[in-house]
């Protein structure tokens, strides 16, 4: 009798072990979630440095809710790549189902993404890009065509300055190494090299923040006020620069000394554009949440998803806008 009970116990143990083993060997994307209540997503957001970034975080939060079947864990990296690495390693330890990363800069991602891949967790890159030797380390990259954005600005400026003998351009740059900074910078630098009447008189580091934009612009204007164009790589830096221009007594916008080109086209920037204070707003859409969810659903159903997905965006002058359009802006 004792031997029978012991044999039965061993058989039950073996069956349980087989069950556990086979349940972990499925090749389907959803195998690890099983019957869990929520699909858990770890989101490494690079920071909260701008109105655009805040809107981007809000879009993700409003999309990946418990009601929609998700648990979203957001880690704010405060614009530090090392903070992102630490957050991603916590996501691995917590066993999330998928990781979304909005990277601070392009370089330096190979090691951490290899760690994620070894853990069997899929990755989606949003907003900016990562420069890695093996792009199989992530599923897809969703975001803006930042070079095209810069080219839209350049095309507009070409039209506006075709009869100008000299065009002095002050270039306000975002976080060095970020895709938006690299590509928007490339567009204006490439254009300067082909326009003999264009000159980038200075490139100032504004780090995509209003405070830094104001700081560097204020210092620059103490020594040099000969500016025709401000090419500012995001709205928040532009707002800081506008305050510095005001304090220096320099006019801008319609009938002003300085033409202002800004990127993001947030609601506040569009209002300034409609009011004639900003000359050109180039759109950068932060509402990534619904598109990210759409691609996750396709991945979970076993579909092949595109490696790069660009969001449709436009550029706006005062003539393109109405008050109704500005009021309807979500960010």
Structure characterization notes:
The chain is an alpha/beta fold. The chain has 2 domains: 35-144 and 286-300, Response regulator (Rossmann fold, 3-Layer(aba) Sandwich); 146-284 and 317-327, Response regulator (Rossmann fold). The protein has helices spanning 2-23, 51-63, 81-94, 110-118, 146-160, 179-193, 210-221, 235-248, 267-274, 289-300, 323-327; strands spanning 39-45, 70-76, 98-101, 123-127, 140-143, 167-173, 198-205, 229-232, 259-264, 280-283, 308-310, 315-316. The strands form 2 sheets. Strands 2-1-3-4-5-11 form a 6-stranded parallel beta sheet, sandwiched between helices. Strands 7-6-8-9-10-12 form a 6-stranded mixed beta sheet, with helices on both faces. The longest helix has 22 residues, at 2-23. It starts with a helix and ends with a helix. The model is unreliable at 1-28 (pLDDT under 50).
CATH class of the largest domain, please?
Answer: Alpha Beta
Q: What is the terminal-to-terminal distance?
A: 74 Å
The biggest beta sheet, please? 6 strands, parallel
Q: SSE order in H/E notation?
A: HEHEHEHEEHEHEHEHEHEHEEH
Radius of gyration: 25 Å
- Whole-number mean pLDDT: 91
What structural category arises from helix and sheet content?
A: alpha/beta
Helix content: 40-55%
User: How many DSSP helices?
Assistant: 11
Determine the CATH topology of the largest domain.
Rossmann fold
Count of spatially separate domains:
2
């Amino acid at each position: 009798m004792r031997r029978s009970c012991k044999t039965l116990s061993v058989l039950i143990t073996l069956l349980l072990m087989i069950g556990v083993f086979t349940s972990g060997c499925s090749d389907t994307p959803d195998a690890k979630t099983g019957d869990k209540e929520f699909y858990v997503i770890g989101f490494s957001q690079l920071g909260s440095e701008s109105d655009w970034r805040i809107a981007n975080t809000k879009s993700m939060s409003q999309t990946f809710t418990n009601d929609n079947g998700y648990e979203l864990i957001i880690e704010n990296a405060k614009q530090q790549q090392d903070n992102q690495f630490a957050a991603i390693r916590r996501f691995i330890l917590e066993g999330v189902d998928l990781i979304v990363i909005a990277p601070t800069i392009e370089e330096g991602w190979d090691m951490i993404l290899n760690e994620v891949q070894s853990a069997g967790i899929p990755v989606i890159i949003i907003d900016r890009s990562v420069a890695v030797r093996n792009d199989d380390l992530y599923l897809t990259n969703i975001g803006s065509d930042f070079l095209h954005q810069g080219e839209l600005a350049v095309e507009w400026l070409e039209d506006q300055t075709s009869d100008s003998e000299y065009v002095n351009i002050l270039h306000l740059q975002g976080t060095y190494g970020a895709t938006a900074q690299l590509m928007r910078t490339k567009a204006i630098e490439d254009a300067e090299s082909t326009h003999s009447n264009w000159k980038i008189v200075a490139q100032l580091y504004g780090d995509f923040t209003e405070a830094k934009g104001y700081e560097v612009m204020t210092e620059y204007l103490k020594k040099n006020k000969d500016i025709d164009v401000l090419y500012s790589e995001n709205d928040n830096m532009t707002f800081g620069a506008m305050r510095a221009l005001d304090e220096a007594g320099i006019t801008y916008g319609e009938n002003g000394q300085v033409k202002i080109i800004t990127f993001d086209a947030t609601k506040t920037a569009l209002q300034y554009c409609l009011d004639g204070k900003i000359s050109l707003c180039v759109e950068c859409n932060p509402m990534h949440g619904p598109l990210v969810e759409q691609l996750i659903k396709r991945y979970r159903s076993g579909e092949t998803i595109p490696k790069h997905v660009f969001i449709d965006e436009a550029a706006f002058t005062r003539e393109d806008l109405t008050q109704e359009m500005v009021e309807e802006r979500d960010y």
